[in-house]
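The material for today's practical consists of a large collection of protein records. An example says more than a description, so a record of this kind follows:
***
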Amino acid sequence: MRSSRYGSYRGRSRLSTFLKVLVVILLLLLIAAAAALVLGILDPYQVYSADGIRLNLPFLQQQEQESPPPPTASQSLVITQTETPAPTPEPESAQVRGVLLSRQALQDGTAQQQVEAAGANAAVFDMKADDGSLGYVSQLELAIGGEVSASDPGLNDAIQTLCGGELYTIARVSCFRDNAMPRMRNSLALRTVSGYNWLDPEGMRWLSPANDQVQEYLAGVCRELAALGVDEIFLDNAAFPVEGDISSIQTGENYNPQQFSAELENFYALVRQALADYPDVKLSIAAQEGVFAREGEEIGGQSAGLLC
């Protein structure tokens, strides 16, 4: 009888099944313990809300602080910005920048246009020029007798209309430098020792600043110009001459170097008195060159103290 190579079958071992069940149970217990440990650690950071449970971990809080969430529709985004205050605008300069216009501009309606084209803000008119002629119709006796008054009957009305507008108007008055009146009235002129009208380097005659009639005439011119409505009267050549052959001028009542300052002081006061009824009219005077540089020194009768 041949022997078998296989042993007889005795069925599954109960021990093997028990061990497998035990391993599964141990694994489940291990997983449960790990989960409990994790939940215990994270418990302080669990946040319960209507949306469920979420973790509020420290590193997530830091990120939220560094990068805040964009605003939702129910939130307002407010931006605070420190603005640098705008610089306070400097006040506009009150300096008058005039341009000398021809007398024709008094009537032809181009004065404003010419002033703007020159970049100026005021119109200057020679209302008593160096040649002695007047740019308006005067009622003064010396002006009429010396034939220096304008003759256009409508000129004064045109001047008043122009001065009544927005344009700033300046009337230049060449005071003692006058090439016309000395020829008509030699007694009013500065004369040479030989008896002729004294002439400056440009061949122009001069009225005597010391003559009472001359001072009253010029004050009358200023009063008439103020009545026409000019904004400012500019006195030019308002002193004794300082250029040319001064030594050839005949001294005396019309020319006394010891009285220059006193004569001019009287003249300036007379002009101020003539403008007393026109307080809005400004008065300006051209200073001889060097008057303010040489303190205490008179130049042609002018001094810094007298002008001030």
